[in-house]
Write a structure and sequence with these properties.
With 295 residues, the chain is mostly helical. The protein has twelve helices and no strands. α2 (20-36) packs antiparallel against α3 (40-57), α2 runs parallel beside α4 (63-78) and α5 packs antiparallel against α6 (111-124). The protein is elongated.
Length: 295
């Protein structure tokens, strides 16, 4: 809730200062908060708004644009709309592998994230060999970037894939790797998922000590992530943001109505002036004709 509140405050400041890039970045970050809670539809709304602003800004730094495109693909994967997933991930990958003679910005190289999500797309399509290859490429690409979150997620995806293929030893190996890396970060969601995976794996192997160990880690992470008071705060903030967006829409509608009214009055004024000028011209023509007739 605190992160969402700060993002919404930053969003207001960005919009007030007409900072397109800053607004897009904040929208993207806000979408990620919803994405982390598997709430994909509101996440998509923020990501699409961010994409529109990034494209309007014409910024030479495309690392954030790639991030938004990948976030869109990942969100559609969460909704099992794989054609849309492929569309946005292919766009992101094409931009990522294009030459960057000046290097990447302070946001770093998004390649680990893009590769990981492409791997997940292959896994969703049942293409196991390709998925494993992309996950390993993602983990390897994360090392020089010191992108530990992407590395942890790549290992997690490998663990989940091996579990779904009934290969518990490989699943446990990569889940441990993912948890180890995740615990070096403020990455509660990753800790929760990997500890749950490990506790379930050891329970199936009837190893109560290991089961209890990872179950405790899981419950601690779960309490932190799903505290009822925090969820209520999140709901309240989300409702406030909906009201703010509605207010912006109403203000935009009123502005458009005012513009249309001004244009209408301007048009009527032009018509009146045209009629006046035309009337004067006709009157002068008639007077000239009368003078000619009297000669």
């Amino acid at each position: 809730p605190a992160a969402l509140r700060l993002n919404l405050q930053a969003l207001q400041l960005n919009e007030d200062s007409n900072d397109l890039t800053g607004t897009a970045r904040t929208l993207n970050q806000t979408g990620l908060l919803y994405f982390a809670l598997d709430d994909f539809r509101p996440a998509l709304r923020y990501f699409f708004r961010a994409l529109q602003l990034y494209e309007q800004s014409g910024s030479p730094d495309d690392s954030q644009l790639i991030s938004v495109l990948t976030n869109l693909g990942a969100s559609y994967e969460g909704l099992h709309q794989l054609d849309s997933t492929a569309h946005y991930l292919n766009r992101a990958h094409a931009l990522t592998v294009a030459p960057h003679p000046n290097g990447w910005s302070c946001w770093g190289n998004p390649l680990p994230y893009v590769l990981r999500e492409i791997g997940l797309l292959h896994a969703s399509r049942g293409q196991t060999v390709q998925a494993i290859a992309y996950y390993h490429r993602s983990a390897a690409a994360a090392v020089p970037e010191n992108d530990q979150r992407s590395r942890s997620r790549a290992y997690q995806y490998l663990a989940e894939l091996y579990r779904s293929r009934q290969l518990p030893d490989s699943s446990v190996f990569y889940a441990r790797q993912a948890l180890k890396v995740g615990q070096t970060l403020p990455f509660t969601l990753g800790i929760l998922r990997n500890s749950a995976l490990l506790s379930n794996a050891f329970e199936a192997q009837r190893r109560p000590d290991s089961t209890l160990k990872y179950l405790r880690i899981m419950l601690t992470a779960q309490d932190s992530l799903h505290d009822p008071q925090r969820i209520k705060q999140l709901d309240a903030i989300g409702f406030a943001e909906q009201l703010r967006l509605r207010q912006l829409e109403e203000e935009s509608t009123q502005l458009n109505s005012s513009i249309r009214m001004y244009m209408l009055w301007a048009g009527l004024g032009i018509l009146a002036l045209t009629a006046l000028l035309l009337g004067g011209y006709v009157w002068r023509q008639r007077r000239a004709n009368l003078v000619l007739q009297q000669l």
